[in-house]
Amino acid sequence: MESLPLTVNGKLNTRALPAPEYQDADQYRAPANAVEELLTGIYAQVLGVERVGVDDSFFDLGGDSISSMQVVARARAAGLVCRPRDIFVEQTVSRLAQVVTLADGESGVADTGVGPVVATPIMRWLYSLDGPIDEFNQTVVLQVPAEVTEADVIAVLQAVLDHHAMLRLRVADAENGDLTVPEPGSVDACDCLCTVGELTADTLAAVRAQLNPATGSMLTAAWVPETRQLALMIHHLAVDAVSWRILLEDLNIAWAQHRSGQPVVLPTPGTSFGRWSRLLDQHARTADVLATADVWRTVAAAPAALPAPQPDTDVYANAGQLSASLDVETTGQLLGDVPAAFHAGVQDILLIAFGLAWSEYLGSEQGSIGIDVEGHGRTEELFGDADLSRTVGWFTSKYPVALDFDRNTGGISWEQVVNGDAALGAVIKKAKEQLRSVPDGLTYGLLRYLNPDVELDNPDPTIGFNYLGRLGAGAADLSDDLWRLDPDAVSLTAAGGRVNTPLGHTVELNAGTMDTEAGPQLQATWTWAPSALDEEQIQKVSKLWSDALAGICAHVRSGGGGLTPSDVAPARLSQQQIDDLTAQFDMVDVLPLTPLQHGLLFHTGLSQDSEDLYAVQLDISVSGRLDVERMRDAVQTVITRRPNVVAHFYEDFGEPVQILPANPELAWQYVDLSGRSDIDAQIAQISAAERAAVCRLGDQPPFRAAVLRTGEETYRFVLTNHHIVLDGWSKPILLQEIFVSYFGQRLPAPVPYRRFVSWLAEQDNDAARAAWRGVFSGFETPTLVGTPGLALGRRAVESFQVSAETTQALGELARSCHTTVSTVLQGAWAQVLMWLTGQPDVAFGTAVSGRPTDVPGADSMVGLLINTVPVRATITPETTVASLMNQLQGAYTDTLDHQHLALNEIHRATGHDQLFDTVFVYENYPIDTAALLGVQELSITDFTNREYNHYPLSVQAVPGHELGLRVEYDTNVFDRQRIKRLVNRLQRVLVAMTADMREKS
After folding, report:
1. Residue 885: beta bridge partners?
2. Which of 107, 164, 483, 995 has its Cβ near the most Cβ atoms within 10 Å?
3. Model pTM?
C-alpha cells in the first residue's frame, strides 16, 4: 500500500485495510513507499551492497560518518532532506524515512562562496609549517570514456571550476587573513590543463609546479589522449577526501550534460566554505567551545612518543612510504560485527588497535600515547541551517587524543591481544571511553588557531592517524561511459604528493576501505620521517596493527563486546557495574529513571504489603473469532519493539536504573473460563493476581497480558502494567500497535524511549526552578484537603456527566477567551478548591504529556513521559472569568518550557514541602476502539481502565458530547455524599462561568 488509511481522528482505519499477508519479522523487509525505496537504493549505492532492507542498520552495513554525508548528498539530489546526524540517530531506512523532509528548493542557506574567506584552523596549521607549501596537493588519476576529447575535458573542468568556489581560492597573505574567492569565470580551464604523452613522476612534478595559491592557481591537470587518463592536482587548501567524492560526481554530471548538448547545471553546493569559515570564527569564542579548553590541555600534555620530524630534511618528497592491506574477511568484520559488538565506530576500533600496536612497539615505559587524529570536520549540526554535503573545500579537523593501555601496570600481554583473549574486552572498553571523553575534535583547532585568548600551544603528537572511511563505494556499478578513478594509477597518485612540504608527523597512517571485486578491503599507507625511523621498524608496527585488528575480530567472534559507561549515559554507571549487570541480564540498554519513575518506585516500595495504587489494568471485552496465538505474537512483537515496557528496575547501585532486555519475554497467560459458573469471580481473581505481579518490580516484569475465554466467541483481553513504564498517552499507541500487528499490517519503526530520557537529562533545571519560583512567588499556604499523616484509605470512584448544553458552552467560552477547554476546567476547579478550603490563593496538580516538540517522534513514543506539575490560581471578588483565564494561560506560558522539572524539585524551588494534594486532569487521549479492529472479524463490546493514584482527591475530565467527570477519592477523607456535593458545586461553577461570559458578550 502507498499509505495507510486513516479515520477522521487520524487513527488507523483497519476496516479499509486489505487482507493481511504474514512474513517472518527476522527476514529482509522491502521498502513500503517511495521514500523508503529511494533511501534503500541510496544506502545500497553508497555502501556498495546489493540489497538493503528497511530494518538494516547503516552502521552494521559498514557505514561511517563520511559515507553518511554521501547519503545526505544523494538524498538531497533525489529531493529528500536529512542530515548526517539523522543517519547516526535513526540508522535504519524505516526510521530515517520518518524524519526526512521533502526539499523545497529553498531550505538551508546556499550561497555562491564569492568573497573573503577566514583562514580555518587546518589552514593556519598548514601555514605554521616551517617550509614551502605552494605545491601541497591531493592528486587523483581518472580514466575517462573513449570519446572524450581535450575540448570536452576543458568544458567539463570549466563547469566544475565555476561551480565550486574554493577551486578559485586566492591566498594573498594567509597569516594576515587575506584569502578571497573571485567570481565564476575568473579561472580559465585552458590555463589549468596541459596535454602530455605519458603520465610519469617527472610529468606530474612539472604539472604540480603550476600550483600557486597566491595567484589563484588551485587546480592543474595533465591530459593523456592516448590512454584517456586525466591527472587532477588540487591544492590541499581547496580539497579534502569528501570533496573528491563530490567532484567525481559533478565531473560525471557535467560530462553527461555536455555530451548530450545540454547546458551544464550542477547540483546546488549548499553552504559555501566562505560562510562556514566565518561561522567557525564566531563559534571559536562561544562559551561551549571555551569550556573544552582544560580537557584539551590535559590531552595535549601527553609526552611525545617519537622524536619530532626535522623540517629541513623530513619532507614529503623523501619520506618513507609503505602500503599494506587487510584481507576481505577481516575487513568485513571491522566494518560490521566488531564496531556493533562494542557500540563503537569503525574509526574507534581502528584507532584503538593502532594505539595497542604502538604500545607494544614502544614498550612498557611508555605511558599515555599521544596520537594526532584527523576528522572530516563537517560538523553541520553546530549551525542549524548549514549544509556541507556538497561543498568542496578543506574541512579537515585535526586534534590530539591520548590512549593509556596500562601496559606497565599489569595490563594484558601481547599474546592475549593477538589471540583475542577475554581480557582484551576490558582494554578495548577502557580505550573507547578515553576516546569518548575527548570533546568534539573541531573545538581543539578553534581554540588553538582562532581564539587568541586561549593558550593551547603544545607540540602536535608525533604520531598521526587518519581513517578516510569507505573509498570508492558503489563504484562497481560505474560503466565505461563515466569518469572513474584509475585503479592502476596508485603509484602516480603517490608521486603527485612528493613535495618539499615538511612532514606533519614522524609517522602517519592514512587508511581507507576500498571496494574491490572480492569485497571491501582495508588499505593503509604508512608515511614516516627518515631521520627517526626506517622501513623495517614501520613494517613491524604495521604488522602489530594488523595483528591487533585480527585479535579484536577473534575476540568478537568468541562473544566479546558489550556496553560501556558512555553508551548508557545519562545513567551514571561504572564499567564494573555494567559488567555486573551484563553477567546477570541479557540487556540491550540501561537507562536512568525519570523523576516521576523515581517517585513511583519509592511509592511501590512503601506499599509492598498491600495492593499497589499504581497497577494499571485495561480490561477489553472482545467478541469474534480471536486467534489467541496471533494475539500473543502481536503483543510479543510490540514489547520487542518497546523493550522499556518490560524493563527490569534494579536498585542495588547508588541510583536505581532500568534495564532494557535484549530479548524481551512476554508475561502471558491464556485461561479458558467458558462453561464455568463463577466466571466473574475467576476474572476478578486472575486480574488481581496480574496486578499484584506487576508490582513486584524486583523479580517480575512490569507489563503482562492475558486472554481469558469466557464463551464460544467471547474473550477478555487484559493488559496490566505498573504505571512506572506506561502513561495514559502511551496506552492508545500501544493498543493500536498490538492490533495492527495482530492483523498482519506493517508497523512504523519505533522511536526509542532513550531519546526522551536523554533529552530530559540535557534540560536546564536551574532555569526551570527559576520559572516555577516566579509563578509561585508570594504563595503562602499549601492547598490541602486531606489530613496530614493520615494513612491511605480504600480508593473509590464516582462518575458524572456534564450536560451537552453546558459542554458546548464550555467550548464556546474557551474560544472566546482564546484558550483551551482544559484551562477553563482548571479555572472552575480552582473555584471549587477555594470553596472547599476557604483560601483565595489555591494550587492543585495536573498531568502534562511530557512529549516535547523538539524531540523527534515524541508523539509516538511509548513509556512514562508524563509529569505532574502545579497550577496556581488567585481569586478575589474582582476576578472575572476572562481575567482568571488570562492568569492561568499566562502561568502556563511562563512554565511551558519547564514542565519537565520533577515535582519535588518544584516544591523545593517554591520553598514548600508540598503545594497541593488534589489533582485535576483533562484526558485528551481517549482510546478509539472502533479504529482498532477489522470489520467482520472482531469487535470490542466493552472496556474498563483501572488506574489510581495516591492523592486523596483526583478529578479526571473526559471529553465527549457530554463531558465526563471521573472522581477518584480516598474513603478515609471523603464519603460518597460529600463527593456528590463537590461535583454539584463544580457543575454550578461551570454553568455560572458560561453564563457570565454570555452576559458580557
Report:
1. none
2. 164
3. 0.84
